[in-house]
Amino acid sequence: MRICSSAPRSLLLAGAFLGILTYGATAQQAASPPAAAPAAAPLPPGSALIGRPDNEAAQKLAPVAPPPLAAAPDKLPLAKLKVPAGFNIEVYAAGMANARSMALGDKGTVFVGSRLLDKVYAIVNKDGKRTAKVIASGLYRPNGVAFKDGTLYIAELSKVSKIEKIEDNLDNPPKPVVIYDKLPKDEAHGWKFIAIGPDNKLYVPVGQPGNNVLHDDAHGQIRRINLDGTGAEVVALGVRNTVGFDWNPETKQLYFTDNGRDWMSEDVPEDKLNRVTKVGEDFGAPYCYQGNIPDPEFGWGHSCSEFTPPVGLMGPHAAALGMRFYTGSMFPKSYKNAIIVARHGSWNRSKKFGGDVVVVHLNKDGTVKNIEPLITGFLEDNKYVGRPVDVMQLKDGSLLVSDDWNGAVWRVSYGKQKVAGQ
Amino acid sequence: MRKIITALAFASLAFPASAETIEQRAAACFACHGEHGQSETENTPSLGAQQAPYALIQLFMFREKLRTFEPMNEMAKSFTDDDLSKLSDFLAKLPKPVPPADAGELTRMQRGQALTQQNRCNSCHNADFSGKENVPRIANQREDYLVKTLGEYKDNSRHGYDGTMADVMGPITKEQIADLAYYIARVR
Questions:
Q1: Is B156–A68 a contact, with Cβ atoms under 8 angstroms apart?
Q2: What is the DSSP string of A150-187?
């Protein structure tokens, strides 16, 4: 049971000072001493900026927004992207501003949501020619898409809707019909990734409504609902903000990425890869981060041992988002049942981290064995030339990667390159 | 007032998309937003030296009706992607707005300054409030427009491109918004 409360002023101050100390220990550049901080009054409880030191290095950091216009096909940074030997990368489709989560239709249509626009796109393959078109608009932050038995599910900020028989009606799609809207309307971490599990239920996350807040019973969790919107049930607690999950094809266990908080320090906490082994497990937010760091503010009176630890860490401020188990046979054997993760890349760090797609190999016990790069080059001179959001396997075993910076979808294949039909 | 603004905007909508230079086309903007980047119209922002990426995002949102204000939606609807980019680059080169002649009441200025420090406005908007990239210049913006905008972010009637400002404004009161706007409009 959690209730919203305002933390005592002394705790807030303690948090702020700890943040400064940790920061100073890791930052390399000689910034002006953080002497200005004590002069300022403490931040209001729940502020997105708690823990942020008031120094020059911190002032340089702000959330990075992608350009609103999709990059023209001839301006895409294809030549800058690198894949391991034997792999190929190509443009699958372009011109979809703010392309985010992806879902695959039975007939091969690729559906793509957006977060900063109001649109859901479809990449249609017809007579060997691929085109991207808008199939729904006027939606509010329609980041999440899922597909099952002919029906497309769309998650907006605070509701889930569906379009039946979508692939039969791509030229004139009907309006989405709402199936579930008992969701908070907070902007912070309100956009959603969704997916349908092996239990045939739709999984819907509700992030914490801020950077580091003591959330109520309606937030900080993953729920599942029946495909008609009934039977909502909380599956995981203590979830700060997950924007990607999938089920282990062997154990059927749910794995999800979760983003760590901002402004604690440059190097911690790291984002997590979590595994749900039983319904109702608590993953720690906001009391404990990365499995072993008590939060400087909310961690008092708690121990990290109260919470389920992550199966692996995904890097500081890396924004590990979309992830799927690779079940295809096109990639080398070592990729089978490994997890491919899109790391959108940091903003809350002086030297940007992530901005790549990685392969997470698992041990037999389902924990992380190692992490290897699959696509790099999105980050150039500490600036983004692209940002991967979601990954999705096609039927032939090749992999699609969405990129909300360029408004494009990339395709990675292995072996002698057979370009997907234009 | 809204009627007047709308009328002004529509009056200057004679905007043949053809051979005009961006300077000629921007004359329509000046009708409400003021020449040389400084607005003299109630609730209407000064645009001078605005960060080009921020201006581009706003123009795009007006065109796509992701941000709603009828005269601006009307104005932007025929713009091509290229028009939006050129116009935002042009606005960034206009002179920045100047602070009003009155230096402001000392106690209110101090209150406003303390609030900007407390809420770390300099994180993102820079110490001099000049903004960077997708974060707007707010220094010497019109006070009424600042009050309006901060209030709209707080109640989420102005949907930001992302949710950052809604998040930041959550705990801030109406009285604090008034002091913040008073100070930022006059900061030197």
A1: no
A2: TEEEEE-SS-EEEETTGGG-TTSPPPPEEEE------S
Closest CA to A314 of A345, A277, A337, A284: A345
Residue of B nearest to A55 (CA): B123
- In which band, very low, low, confident or very high, does the pLDDT at B16 lie, cut at 50, 70 and 90? very low
CA–CA separation, A420 and A404 (whole Å): 21
Cβ atoms of residues B48 and B94 within 8 Å: yes
- Residue of B53, B114, B161 with shortest CB distance to A41: B114
Cis ω on the peptide bond leading into residue A286 (within 30° of 0)?
A: yes
Instruction: Look up residue A181 and give its amino acid.
Output: D
Please report the ipTM that was assigned to this predicted complex: 0.85
Question: Per the CB < 8 Å rule, is B120 touching A54?
Answer: yes
Smallest Cβ–Cβ distance between B119 and the set A43, A65, A116 belongs to A43
**Nearest CA distance, B124 vs chain A (angstrom):** 5
How far is B24 from chain A, CA to nearest CA, in Å?
Answer: 24
CA distance B38 to chain A (A): 26
For chain B, helix, strand, coil in percent to 5 are 55, 0, 45
**For A191, what's the count of Cα atoms within 13 Å in the CB-facing half-sphere?**
23
Nearest by CB to residue B123, choosing from A52, A67, A185, is A52
Please give the helix or strand (H or E) that residue A324 lies within, else none: strand A320-325
Separation of alpha carbons A152 and A239, rounded Å = 26
Q: What is the pTM of this model?
A: 0.88
A36: Cβ–Cβ under 8 A, 6 or more apart, which residues? Answer: A54, A55, B117
pLDDT in tens, A126-182: 888 899 999 999 999 999 999 999 999 999 999 999 999 999 999 999 999 999 999
Nearest to A358 by CA among A328, A308, A329, A319: A319
Residue A202 CB contacts under 8 Å (≥ 6 apart), including other chains: A146, A153, A160, A194, A195, A196, A224, A225, A226, A227
